[in-house]
Amino acid sequence: MAEVLSEAVGFEQPKVELHVHLDGAIRVQTILDVAKRRGVPLPADTVEGMTQIIILQEPATLTEFLGKFAEYMHVIAGDREAIKRIAYEFVEDKAKEGVVYVEVRYSPHFLANTQVEPIPWDQEEGDVSPDDVVRLVNEGLKEGEKAFNVQARSILCCMRHMPNWSMTVVELCKKYRHEGVVAIDLAGDESLNTDAQSGHRLAYEEAVRCGVHRTVHAGEVGPPSVVKEAVEVLKAERIGHGYRTLEDPALYQQLLDQKMHFEVCPISSKFTGACDPDFTKHPVIRFREDKANYSLNTDDPLIFNSTLNLDYLTAQQHMGFTQEEFQRLNICAAESCFLPEEEKKALLTKLYEAYGMQKSTGF
Questions:
Q1: Contact 115, 167 (CB under 8 A)
Q2: 87: left (phi > 0), else alpha (psi -120 to 50), else beta?
Q3: Residues 6+ away with beta carbon under 8 Å from 171
Q4: What letter would DSSP give residue 248?
Q5: Can you tell me the distance from the alpha carbon of 79 to that of 63, in angstroms, rounded to the nearest whole number?
Q6: What CA–CA distances, in Å, run from 196 to 171, 202, 269?
Q7: Which residue, among 68, 54, 76, has the nearest Cα to 305 in the 3D structure?
Q8: How distant is the alpha carbon of residue 257 from its chain centre?
Q9: How buried is 5 (Cβ within 10 angstroms: 0-12 exposed, 13-18 middle, 19+ buried)?
Q10: HSE (side-chain half, CA atoms, 13 Å) at 206
């Protein structure tokens, strides 16, 4: 279904994508190739067979969605060649979707195959450390940038169930801030809090102190209070998903007034059970009507068997989106990206020229 629809692009002009996970955007062929090289057994040996195992066939829960990563992450994690390869191929895939700027996120610990206690950011554990992962991803993204003329930056993820990793993550953000890493993120189970003693809160306080940009997964399946916590406690500059914000009118109005950016992922929200599977009832319709600051993104296209073009086509066919709104939301995305100001201005100029628009200062 997704492969057929993706041929009919809802928006053919340049796009900006701000919310996509590297480990959820790997090519199935790459998984097969790496498994064969490493001698790792898989339940299927064809692209078609592995695709059917990895993808969500119908709407599920967030827990069921997260379980899909276990089908293939052990193949890629901890392998230097594979880590660099998936970063390079990611940029190529985004170029094919018409993306001119992308911020891709990942957990350095997960790609290093660190499953238990954290290790210092500047030390090795086994063959690949979280520090190695960031360096390898940076190399792959940079080579992809040169080959495919796409500007690619990365965001490093803290995981809610592993607060002991978070200070390592912020240190990596600081170390590589001039080599492609533009922000810190917090992902995972929203029921886990970020109290004063948690590593997450301490890491975000350090990020604020050092000027590291901040985004947080919040209000995807968790209540509006998680969004409020992200904004007021963690000082998030963007919200990943944020659909449940609409359940708190006062908070929603506050964030509208602040021009808080919502990283919306339509296809994802259907398959993870975050939103009503009826796209005509999706929260992004309210965001559009209220001229909110938001973007359209894929989240984990491998698991949803989707593309960014499919998200745009879905918004066009089921949510009443127009070409003008697609242009507006991409301008919003560029305005809210984590590039340095001069690079952000250049990106905006590129979009305005491509859209045949006069540059303005508002959303």
A1: no
A2: alpha
A3: 121
A4: S
A5: 26
A6: 19, 8, 30
A7: 54
A8: 24
A9: middle
A10: 16
Residue 113: per-residue pLDDT: 82
Q: At 109, list the tokens.
A: 């610990």
Dist CA 351 CA 344 (whole Å): 11
Taking a C-beta distance cutoff of 8 angstroms, is the pair 65, 271 a contact? yes
Q: Calculate helix-pair angle for 224-232, 249-257, nearest 10 degrees.
A: 40
Residue 119 corresponds to which amino acid? Answer: I
Give all strands (DSSP E) within 53-142, no chain letters: 99-106
Q: What is the C-alpha separation between 33 and 67, in angstroms, rounded?
A: 22
Q: Which of 97, 182, 100 is nearest to 346 (CA)?
A: 100
Q: Which of 80, 69, 76, 173 is nearest to 126 (CA)?
A: 80
Give the pLDDT score at 360.
57
**Length of the chain, in residues:** 363
> What does the block give as tokens for 130?
């979280």
Six-digit token string for 260 = 């808080």
Give helix then strand counts, H and E, for the chain: 18, 8
Residue 33: both structure tokens together: 């190739």
Distance between CA 252 and CA 228 in Å, rounded?
A: 10
Q: Catalytic residue positions? A: 220
> What was the pLDDT predicted at 88?
98
Per-block average pLDDT, block size 10, for the chain (363 residues)? 49 97 98 97 96 92 86 96 98 98 97 59 62 98 98 97 95 98 94 77 97 97 95 97 98 98 97 93 98 98 96 97 97 98 98 86 45
pLDDT in tens, 128-178: 999 999 999 999 999 999 999 999 999 999 999 999 999 999 999 999 999
